[in-house]
Fold this protein.
Amino acid sequence: MKVYYVPPNQYIPYQPMNLPQFPLPEALMRGTLWPALYGPYESKCQMGRPEESEQ
């Protein structure tokens, strides 16, 4: 199944006033200060871990 992520700049043309913000340490981990602009990245790579089907 293909899933497409729509970039936030498609529906937030400018930064509204009083937009909620992540705490600074969390913003650094997520790569953005604003939750409305955050899109999680789910890696398809197992990074060296054995496949679950092989167990």
